[in-house]
């Protein structure tokens, strides 16, 4: 396939000029937002002035990732992090999945499996000896930014789950971003993480729970679809999606039809772009974006038959709310045991991004997550002892 031409903002000196102009504009925008939200209607009445301004600020800055191809907080996938640099987790190498597990949509002559970093929560934990639930965590960032290290703010999610729930051990996968390798690199790295638990460490898949937020919440359904379609490894016990990015087609539809604009687009901090999807696609045809692999909310009827329990979390102020509604509706129609947790006045990735609204939603979600995992753990132990 002919290589796609990137946007003009990907090339210097226009790239530098665009970034500079957008950042300088904040000198006028931040004071104006402050005055506006002080005197007039706020996006949500419960939001503080600080929260309103921060959400607008992030919404303004976020397009730089997709429009300019920058990857903030990207980590080196070749560096072994010394244990002395880590306080809460242990660095591990995740070896590439065996070639016999790489088939179908994961098989690509131009994008190959590779060794990637991983982090085990808590520090010093021995996953192989764990007898309870074990999590496999995928961070968010639109496949454009972020990492799996404990210093990344979104690691608040595995941190809290490991500390306060029945899931006491979690493997965080530092998968490749789109700027490092296009699809199917992310799937290959997710598969390597899952294979590490099942094959290398000999874990029973019935005790593994897939966890993901934002793009990680896209990667979880992608990995699950692959496992169910290709049957290269047994499926996990359950999955948890936090503010998941589910629809990779909608951004192209919006270009042609503005009536398809995501709800809460002017309220949420999230600013999505088809340019990020093009970088993710790489040399592949855009037609694959509408497949059940890459747009789970567009899965045909009966596409989720025999899926395990799924927990879906979203804020009602999120731009992803509509596609989460669509996914949950399809899961329920297919008989999946799905728990849908919708938090009032919560913005995108509110459990992972502590600067966005709001604390009350975070507290409610945390309790619901811990309770759901307690019930899942009880069921798993009951089955194991039968």
Task: Produce the secondary structure layout.
Blueprint: H1 14-24, H2 26-39, H3 49-61, H4 63-68, E1 90-94, E2 116-121, E3 134-138, H5 156-164, E4 169-173, H6 185-200, E5 208-213, H7 215-230, E6 238-242, H8 250-256, H9 274-281, E7 310-315, H10 321-333, E8 338-343, H11 359-385
Parallel strand pairs: 3-4, 3-5, 5-6, 6-7, 7-8
Antiparallel strand pairs: 1-2, 2-4
Pfam family, one: Abhydrolase_3
Protein name: Alpha/beta hydrolase fold-3 domain-containing protein
Keywords: Hydrolase, Membrane, Transmembrane, Transmembrane helix
Short description:
By secondary structure, this protein is α/β, with parallel strands linked by helices. Helix content is 36%, strand content 11%.
What is the CATH top level name of the largest domain?
Answer: Alpha Beta
Structure annotation, total helices: 11
User: What class, by secondary structure content?
Assistant: alpha/beta
Strand order of the largest sheet: 1-2-4-3-5-6-7-8
Largest beta-sheet characterization: 8 strands, mixed
**pLDDT averaged residue by residue:** 95
Low-pLDDT regions: none
* Rg value: 20 Å
Termini, distance in Å?
53 Å
Classify the beta-strand content into a percent band.
Answer: 5-15%
Q: Mind telling me the CATH superfamily name of the largest domain?
A: Alpha/Beta hydrolase fold, catalytic domain
Number of beta-strand segments:
8
SSE run: HHHHEEEHEHEHEHHEHEH
Keywords: Hydrolase, Membrane, Transmembrane, Transmembrane helix
Protein name: Alpha/beta hydrolase fold-3 domain-containing protein
Pfam families: Abhydrolase_3 (PF07859)
């Amino acid at each position: 396939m002919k290589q796609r031409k990137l946007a003009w903002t990907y090339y210097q000196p226009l790239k530098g000029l665009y970034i500079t102009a957008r950042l300088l504009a904040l000198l006028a925008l931040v004071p104006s937002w402050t005055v506006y939200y002080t005197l007039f209607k706020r996006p949500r009445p419960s939001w503080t002035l600080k929260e309103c301004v921060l959400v607008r600020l992030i919404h303004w800055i976020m397009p730089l990732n997709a429009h300019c191809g920058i990857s903030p907080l990207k980590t080196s996938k070749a560096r072994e992090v010394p244990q002395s640099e880590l306080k809460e987790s242990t660095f591990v190498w995740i070896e590439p999945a065996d070639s016999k597990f790489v088939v179908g949509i994961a098989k690509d002559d131009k994008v190959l499996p590779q060794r990637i970093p991983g982090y085990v929560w808590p520090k010093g934990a021995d996953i192989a000896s764990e007898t309870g639930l074990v999590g496999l965590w995928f961070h968010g960032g639109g496949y454009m930014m972020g990492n799996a290290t404990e210093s990344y703010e979104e690691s608040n999610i595995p941190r809290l789950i490991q500390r306060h729930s029945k899931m006491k051990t979690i493997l965080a996968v530092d998968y490749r971003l789109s700027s490092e390798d296009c699809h199917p690199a992310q799937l290959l790295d997710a598969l390597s993480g899952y294979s590490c638990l099942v094959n290398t460490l000999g874990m029973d898949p019935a005790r593994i729970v897939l966890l993901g937020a934002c793009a990680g919440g896209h990667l979880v359904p992608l990995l699950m679809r692959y496992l169910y379609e290709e049957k290269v490894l047994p499926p996990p016990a359950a999955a948890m999606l936090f503010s998941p990015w589910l629809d990779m087609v909608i951004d192209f539809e919006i270009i042609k039809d503005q009536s398809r604009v995501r709800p809460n687009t002017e309220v949420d901090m999230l600013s999505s772009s088809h340019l990020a999807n093009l970088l993710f696609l790489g040399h592949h045809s855009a037609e694959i974006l509408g497949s059940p692999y890459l747009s789970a909310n567009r899965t045909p009827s009966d596409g989720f038959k025999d899926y395990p329990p799924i927990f879906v979390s979203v804020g009602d102020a999120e731009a992803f709310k509509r596609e989460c509604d669509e996914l949950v509706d399809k899961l329920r129609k297919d008989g999946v045991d799905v728990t849908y947790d919708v938090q009032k006045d919560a913005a995108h990735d509110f459990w992972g991004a502590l600067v966005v609204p709001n604390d009350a939603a975070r507290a409610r979600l945390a309790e619901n997550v811990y309770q759901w995992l307690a019930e899942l753990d009880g069921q798993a132990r009951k089955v194991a002892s039968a």
